[in-house]
Amino acid sequence: MNALDGAPVLRIGELSRRTGVSDHLLRAWETRYGLLQPARSAGGYRLYSEADALRVRRMQAYLTQGLSAAEAARAVLGEDGRADADADAGPAGPDRVPAEAELPGALQRALDAFDEPAAQAVLDRLFSDFSLATVLRDVVLPYLARLGERWEQGAVSIAQEHFATNIVRGRLAGLARGWGNGHGPRALLACPEGDFHDLALMVFGIVLNRSGWRIDYLGANTPLGELTRSADARPPDLVVVAATLSRSLAPLAEQLTVLAQRVPLILAGPGATPGIARTVGARLVTGDPVTAAGSVGWPR
After folding, report:
1. All domains of the chain, ordered by start, with CATH?
2. What secondary structure does DSSP assign to 230-289, as a single string?
3. Residue pLDDT, tens place only, 23-78
4. What is the largest CA-CA distance in the chain?
5. What do you get for the CA distance between the two ends of the chain, in Å?
6. Which residue from 72, 78, 157, 182 lies 20 to 30 Å from 36 (Cα-Cα)?
């Protein structure tokens, strides 16, 4: 079984929403080609895993390359067979993408070339070969950091930066589908007004959701008054404010202090400093968003 299989948790309707493939077509791919490998719930419902979702996305990538449905399914299942054989031969180190691996470079080349199908295929392969947290920590976040640096250096155009950012955002949005469902504690996530860089916060929310949290996401450029009103209208178990620049938070110290007195508050991102966290009475989380989200326990 692929390392990403885990416990099947998705009904077919949710799988359809995450992948953009109709439930009718999903059932056809399952019965005709064995593409999906559902388990059965106690009530007899089919339950699908994250690995099933990845197979569907890889199937879509092959279809865009002109393969027939049967050929695409055989290619996807053949990749799974090779992955299982590699696993039988010994651990492949799924907890880290090697620095010399070809796939991160292939992702950059595809995005630089405005080649969306190729970029999606690379991402499909990455999510197939490595854990979600590993891909986000070792590939997606470093790629975004390099993209910003290359843009500042003039090595990529505004068009290339926008194209790549939107492809990554779309993929993260797919991973975030349904993150408000469930019965776990609820976290309210936002970036302060004037801060438009929220992809790292999306990664934080995705990883937090995989730990059982439900996510209410306000995203970039959120006035603190709106965030506070949202917290008052539907009190969360945790509020997370992520800032890129420290000057985004300093003028909000008084409002953040009031918010921290109402609900547990976490400050995150490069703009969150120990000084501002102490001033407002918030918890500071540091490091990359994947590791930071993993450090957040459930409320007592």
Report:
1. 1-89 (1.10.1660.10), 93-177 (1.10.1240.10), 186-294 (3.40.50.280)
2. HHHHS--SEEEEE-SSGGGTGGGHHHHHHHHHHS-EEEESTT--HHHHHHHT-EE--S-H
3. 888 888 988 888 888 888 777 778 888 888 888 888 887 776 677 788 888 888 88
4. 61
5. 35
6. 182
